[in-house]
Amino acid sequence: MRSRRRPDVALALGAATLLLLTGIAPAAADDPTTPGDTPTATSSEPAPTPTPTPEPDPEPTPEPEPTPEPTPEPTPEPTPEPTPEPTPEPEPTPEPEPAQQPDEGRAEAAAPAAVEPADITVDPEASEIIVGESAALTVRTTDDAGTPLVDVTTEAAYEFVGGKGTCAAGSCTTTVAGYFAIKVTWGGFTDIVGLLARPGAPVGITLTPANATVSVGDEVLLGAQVVDQYGNAGNNAGETDFTADAGLHCAADGPSRTRCAASATGTYAVTATLRSDPAQTATSSLTVVEDNDALKEISLTAQQSTVVAGEPIVVTVAGRTDDGTTFDVTDRATFQIWRADSLTDVDLSEPQACPAGTCTMTRAGGYLIAATVDQLTAGTGVEVVAAAPTGLDLTPATAAVTVGGPAAFQARLVDGFGNRTLVDSATTYTIEAPGTCDLNICTSATPGVYTVTVTADGRSATARLSVHADARPTDAIARIELQPSAPSVTAGQPGSFIAYAYDDDGRPLGTVTEETSLEIEGAGTWRGPYGLRSLSCSNDTCTSTVAGRHTVTGHFGDLTATSALVVVPGALAVSGLGPGNALIRAGETQTFTPGVMDEYGNLAQPGAIPFGVELAASEGASCTGMVCGSTKAGIYVITIGSINGVEAGHGLPYLGFLTVIPGPADRLGIDPPTTTVAAGTPVDLTATAYDAYDNPIDDVTAETTFVAPTGATCTANRCSSTVAATYPIDASHAGLSAVAHLSVTPGPVDRLTVSPGTASITVGQTQSFTTVGFDAYDNEVGDLTEATTFTVTAPGACAANACGSAEAGELTVTGSYVVPGLPLPERIASGRFGAVFAAPGDTVAGTATLTVSAASNPNPGTPDPGAGTPGTGVPGTGGAPGDGGKNGNGGKGGADGTGSGSGSGGQSADAGEAGALPATGSGVTWWHGLAGALLLLAGLAVVRAPGRRRHTT
User: Fold this and answer.
1) Which listed residue, of 210, 222, 395, 594, carries a Cα 20 to 30 Å from 344's Cα?
2) Cα(511)–Cα(501) distance, rounded to whole angstroms?
3) DSSP class of 114
4) Which residues pair with 173 in a beta bridge?
5) Alpha helices for 828-889 (secondary structure H)
6) How do strand 436-438 and strand 441-443 relate by DSSP bridges?
7) Residue by residue, what is the 3-state secondary structure of 226-293?
8) DSSP codes, 706-722
């Protein structure tokens, strides 16, 4: 045992001695990060790197070689097991798509699901529930042919128009009785379906009107209705008993209605009692006043049924009382007039006032005048004809045909208001030779430009006809014109358009209809209470089920042209509040009226309104009388709110839908308006056109020009800068402009500077350093001194940011900064010269040169042997030496951390510029290291000797 311990002890003693003698000084030349006591945590990271260098650990690892052998055996076994597992896992990943299919139909739709969706469809198109119950909707995407693709019910967004109900994941409910619209949106597609909510089981009774005022002898009709738990009025209350105060005489008018009248003024009460449940009662209050002049009806008369444009239309109103007395009430009436070319074509969108019953119209055509007195209404029609002609007009002003093709012209007399009247069919049309005209049809067999002339009523007019060969230079097209092939179409029927092309000089180049795509303003489809509301275009036709004048735009490459599709109502189908489906711009208004509509809800025949009606609109829109509108784009439900001041019930036939689309573009919005990014990071800007009421019209990013000032750049809508600053980005589109602000901040630290870059001190002094960070584009990040670790080459040392040395020499000071954040798995080559940017977790370093010179003795002190204060070291820190004497060069401290010396030489201690160097040196001389090495060699020799003896035996 002793023979085995002695070599071990000797070896350990030698190693310890060598480490003690050579490792006392922490400033190792091959590891500049280790010096100093302050960056101990930092130096502990590189410390493990040299620790495994002696490799005592890897040697024991190969010695137990069975360990690596079993390691490869289990390694291939788990490796093939996880390998096939991730392989099938990508397969189950697509399987959730079929997995989320609830039926076989969904599985079959998986194949077409790859087809780009063209629209969505919601089933059912109309639902009916009892209030409080839920209606289940199913939303599917469809292709161009309308074939269902994928069920997106849970992904779609739902809006209960009017806000009187809620929807979630295809389930919609409400506690309010009535007809509602549900707007469903998915992937930019929209569909609207109807929901009819009927009142629930009756729990009470109401009497309408609850309050009324009548004249002596006049009757008032009272009706009893049951109400459900939510207050919705249901059907008539059934068998109801009525009782009234004395003096009020009531007579039944059905099982749930009564008519009451009084012969004397006063206030009376009427009570209704539900016969099936006498506990359910309701009361109405009637006020009877003496008013013999109360009007029962009014009539409106025009002094002439036909009026010349520009001349006044004079009407009078007569009123009749209950006793048959008739008198003029024109001064009490208010008048409105509408364009009405026929009973089936009334333009209710632009009513005009007629003060004092006198209207002056300058546009020829039919008109409907209505008068209102005391909530009574009457109407009459008049015809306005053109005035005396003042000129002649020939249309079209320019026309183009190929050789031999016919061009039809039409001459009209024009009055001073622009009204046109067709001329006599015997009017002669002529054309320059060699062209010919047959009545109003002109042509030529020779290409060229011809003048067509017509003469009528002593006046003449001309037009231009261009005749060209069949081959037309399409590359010379400078503009296009879009014209409808018919002046109007019936709702639901397609209207076709022709696109004409012209060159820079206005010469016609024929038609480009097939190459022109069409779009109609307000395009979309949804189902309302009166059928399908749809506006769409396909090839050279556009179709609308909404009566009115619609704007159609044709696109030929970058060229555009607009025209109008005039839609008139179809056959009469249903009575109700019309138009059932109205379309206006934000800020405009729409006049509704009861009448007869076609199958799409277009008002075809307005009816008289013998009572005062106040319409009501769902939230977001408003109504005054019969006129409704909104400044917010959306879809709104219009109902009859009250009749003669009495709140109306939920009558399904009497409601309409008002679709409000954005108005003309008024401003440009940029998103984000303000953004902050790091230098070199681009930001994508989005431009949206808004109307005057902040309704978004369209995303116009692709057509918007973005301009950045000096220091920043914009490529299309992507803007960036490598220089930290704030930049205004100017955006412009179609005469609109906006400014976005791009704030660029310095990026991550990519470079570090150490200041001062060069410094000189004397032995025993220290120098303070500071660091400033810069990103990859040389933007200054800021002072990073506190976050920087400072090291210096041996024999120097650093404490925080102060570095120095006990020995003279030229040293390198290194500042190291760790970029904050989690380390990235990979680096991106970019920036300056394709360099790899510093990333989170990387260390960025900068250096400076520190020159340490020997201490000078300009003021030698008085020799004072023994006057020095004994130096004291810090035991256990590797023998940090004590400082000899204060006044003289005392002896160095011993290795154990304590020492004393006597002063000699009389030199005062020099404090240095930046402070005294900390005691971090070693008291070991060269021979101590040599002795330790010899002792270590001796220990090794002792270890090897027994091994040789064992080998020889």
Assistant:
1) 395
2) 6
3) G
4) 134, 166
5) none
6) antiparallel
7) EECCCCCEEEECCCEEEEECCCEEEEECCCCEEEEEECCCEEEEEEEEECCCCCCEEEEEEEEECCCC
8) EE--TT-EEETTEEE-S
**Token digits of residue 843:** 């260390």
- pLDDT (tens digit, 9 = 90+) per residue, 876-930? 333 333 343 333 333 333 333 333 333 333 333 333 334 444 433 334 444 444 5
Tokens of 904: 């000699």
The string of pLDDT tens digits covering residues 552-563 is 999 998 899 999
Q: What is the pLDDT of residue 733?
A: 93
Tell me the CB-side half-sphere exposure of residue 437, using CA atoms within 13 A. Answer: 18
Q: From residue 733, give the alpha-carbon distance in Å to each of 520, 561, 689.
A: 22, 18, 9
Say which residues have a Cβ less than 8 Å from residue 10's Cβ, sequence separation at least 6. 935, 938, 939, 942, 943
| pLDDT higher at 759 or 51 | 759
**Residue 335 CA to its chain's centroid (Å):** 46
Structure tokens that stand for 808 in this block: 């003279």
Q: What digits encode the pLDDT tens for the residues 178-193?
A: 777 788 888 878 887 8
The residue type of 721 is S
Answer yes or no: are the C-beta atoms of 606 and 382 closer than 8 Å.
Answer: no
R_g (Cα) of the chain, nearest Å: 49
- Residue among 625, 596, 531 at smallest CA distance from 126: 531
944 CB-contact burial (10 Å; exposed 0-12 / middle 13-18 / buried 19+): exposed
**Strand, coil or helix: what is 86?**
coil
Residue in 151, 196, 153 with CA at minimum distance from that of residue 176: 196
| Cβ within 8 Å of residue 528, ≥6 positions away | 181, 192, 194, 580, 581, 601, 657
Residue of 776, 772, 785 lying closest to 747 (CA atoms)? 776
SS3 341: strand
pLDDT (mean) for 824-851: 67
Q: Residues 28-31: contacts with CB within 8 Å, 24+ apart?
A: 28/794, 29/793, 29/794
Q: How far is CA 393 from CA 384, 451, 487, in A?
A: 20, 14, 18
Contact indicator for 487, 494 with CB cutoff of 8 Å = no
Terminal Cα-to-Cα distance of the chain (whole angstroms): 19
Q: Which amino acid is at 919?
A: A
The pLDDT assigned to 907 comes to 36
Q: pLDDT tens digits for 604-660?
A: 777 666 567 788 888 889 999 889 999 998 888 888 887 766 666 554 456 788 889
Peptide bond into 46 cis (omega under 30): no
Q: How far apart are CA 784 and CA 751, in angstroms?
A: 11
pLDDT band at 823 (very low <50, low <70, confident <90, very high): low
Q: Do you know the residue count of the chain? A: 953
pLDDT value of position 495 = 93
Q: List, for residues 31-61, the tens digit of each pLDDT value.
A: 333 333 333 333 333 333 333 434 444 444 3
Q: Give residue-wise pLDDT tens across range 484-533.
A: 988 889 999 999 999 988 888 777 777 888 889 999 988 887 766 677 77
